[in-house]
Amino acid sequence: MSSGPLRFHAVWLRDNAQDHETRAQGNGQRLIALRDIPAETRIEAAEIAKPGTLEIRFAPERKRVSFDLAWLEAHAYDQAAAAQRGWLEDGVETWDADLMADVPCGDFAALTQGGRALQDWLGQIMRYGFAKVVNAPAAPGTLFDIVGLFGHVRETNYGRHFEVRTEVNPSNLAFTGLGLQAHTDNPYRDPVPTVQVLHCLESSAAGGENMVVDGFAAALRLRAEDPEGFDLLANHCARFEYAGEDGVCLTSRRPMIELAPDGALIGIRFNNRSCAAITDVPFDLMADYYAAYRRLGEIIDDTAMEVTFRLNPGEAFVIDNTRVLHARKGYSGEGTRWLQGCYADMDGLRSTYDAMVRSTALEAAE
């Protein structure tokens, strides 16, 4: 329990009552709107009716509601505001090249059985922003089975999935043998696809190793070196554009470092190939903005920030595309390199994980 007192407003408590008149017992959704709660709601009486339970009588309704004290503590909002912009939510852990010694990973057969193996693997993605899959079939379409572990494919103009291999006259530089700077995918979409899956089918070409970089760690390193530069990239929108196909012109206007209103670090958009002309920065700040943009790119390019691994046939990796940048080293024209990729969304992954955690907690409590 909390070491000190916690304060709650009467209207907040009334709005969050868990009784059957206020909430549907099957799904927890509210049965009333805020307009149904008197604006002059106040606490008329409160007492610990039994251990661990607070009973409140509200006026003017004279309605009695019981609250679990542990629930109140878990949902307390009476806390000090974060002192510095760019704070991280609980459960998020930043990393650098040292994580290469213990890359988050799950075995495909174990993951398909669900249970603790799947829960732990999803938990690693929630914590680190990415994880590998090993020992999956090296068969086309297997990436859909990987997405099916936690959610649904998000279809785009590239289709339900896309092929990553050398093409003649490619529509995107990803489909060449060129090395690519670490980047987030599709920053020109709004909303951006929040999960990317890449699954290897063939890999006999020299080179082509995959790299991932923690965008949150890079942003926080920039903040430590240059707080004003961090603020410039967070306070002003960049513009992103993709028009590589007939009938397609995708654009977005979002900051490279995205913060929630309370200062929480919630997203990174960084893709030099798709960055359009930046026009939302005042003239007097543009030089400093570009200096911060350049420095963020240098931090991202620093090998001390990257985790590198080679995907072999039957291996894949899943990344949080709002946080983790990915790249690949260049590869030769000899041999073959064929990956399939697709997009999904973090809300499905988070939902699957949270539901599993709740179920595990309930089982432990029984």
Protein model, in words:
This protein has 366 residues and is an alpha+beta fold. It has two domains: 10-74, NE0471 N-terminal domain-like, CATH 3.30.2020.30; 97-354, Clavaminate synthase-like (Double-stranded beta-helix), CATH 3.60.130.10. It is built from nine helices and 17 strands. The protein has helices spanning 10-15, 69-74, 108-112, 115-128, 142-147, 215-225, 227-235, 283-301, 346-365, and strands at residues 42-50, 53-59, 63-68, 105-107, 130-134, 162-164, 180-183, 195-203, 210-214, 238-242, 250-254, 257-259, 265-268, 306-309, 316-320, 324-328, 337-344. It has a six-stranded mixed beta sheet with strand order 4-5-15-8-17-6. It has a four-stranded antiparallel beta sheet with strand order 7-16-9-14. The model has no long low-confidence stretch (mean pLDDT 93). InterPro entries: AlphaKG_dependent_hydroxylases, GBBH-like_N_sf, TauD-like_sf, TauD/TfdA-like.
